[in-house]
Amino acid sequence: MPAKLSLSLVALTAALVVSFGSPARADEAAPAGDPAHGAKLAYTCLGCHAIADYRNAYPDYHVPKLGGQHPDYLVSALSEYKSGARQHPTMRSQATQMTEANFRDIAAYFATATPAKSGPAPVGTPPKAAEVCQACHGPDGVGILPEYPTLAGQHADYIEQALRAYRKGTRQNAIMQGFAGALSDADIRELSLYFARQKPGLWVPALPKG
Question: Quick check: helix, strand or coil at residue 85?
Answer without folding.
Answer: coil
